[in-house]
Amino acid sequence: MKNLIKLVGVLGLLCTSHVWAYAICSRVTTSVNLTGTTLFVQRDTKVGEPLNDIIPPSAMQLIYTCPATPSYGAIWQNFGFKATGSFTGLTSSSRYIYASTYPGVGFALGANQGDGGSVYWLPATSTPLDGNINQLAMIATSGGNMATSRGSARVRLYKTGTITSGVLSGRVGVFILGSSEAGGGGWAAETPISISGLTITVLACTLSTPSVAVPLGDVQANQFSGVGSTLGTRSFNLGLNCDAGTRVNVSMSGVQNTDTSNTSVLALTGAGNADVAKGVGAQILYNNTPMNIGENLLLKTSAGGMETLGFQARYYQTLAKVMPGKANATATLNISYE
């Protein structure tokens, strides 16, 4: 009877050795944060579509260390990650989209490990940690020792329902280190992966003309009458669909013409090249008034529904003599809503 008791005691030690091994692994990084600034959401974004990808990956960090001994035997040891949100039933390029803590916003969760190589997204075809589709092992070793585990996390946001403006913060997943041995595996403490400080702004307008070309046509260089004279004025429209009461603003960005101090005059594309016209630039106007680069202008307060905003473009003489050549220019009109 005494020999039988001793044998049972030995078996008990063998069964718990792997649990003990992972229990003494150290969690070096206690949390991994993904920080964003402002996410602008178009109000007509459809459910399942991705939102702007503005959250950079977290830095590659040392997540776990394990002692050199004891040996872990001939079982698999795994370093990986899992999502903490519930699966929404939506997918994107085989990635699962999980519900975040913010209504209407879901996320796909990805990570890569210490070699900085491939990014894994849930769920992916790899060694499972415990058979749960929400868990994925990025690296696995058989026997020996996984002395260090390094990782970087990333997310991609998606629309899953009605979104209102606010701030998104909260946990999206965890890094995990453990054994896949059925019934005898052990786990180190989990390292949370969280999003913090992401301001969500739902835009109150939809821009129906995201780009427009304005052909000013050919003009004769000798038709200009002096510095400050203009030719080739053409009108163009931008279409918006806005909520009632939305204040619509616009600012212009572009490269200023170096021949003049007038900040409303845009440089020609390729200025200085032999085939580009000289002594001339371009202007964009609203209500017949030239727009200055970088200046914000209140256009109107929308009554709601479709809005048509009228602009003009034209050539502007910058030097006493205009030399013929190509005369193209590019400007960006930044439409903002309040």
Helix content percent band: under 10%
Using the alpha-carbon principal axes, give the shape.
Answer: elongated
Stretches with pLDDT under 50, minimum 5 residues: 1-20
Order of helices and strands: HEEEEEEEEEEEEEEEEEEEEE
The first-level CATH class name of the largest domain: Mainly Beta
Number of domains: 2
For the biggest sheet, the summary is: 7 strands, antiparallel
Judged by helices, strands and strand pairing, the structural class is mainly beta
* CATH architecture heading of the largest domain: Sandwich
Rg value: 30 Å
Mean pLDDT: 82
Helix count? 1
Strand content: 35-45%
- CATH superfamily of the largest domain, by name, is Bacterial adhesins - F17c-type
Give me the CATH fold name of the largest domain.
Immunoglobulin-like
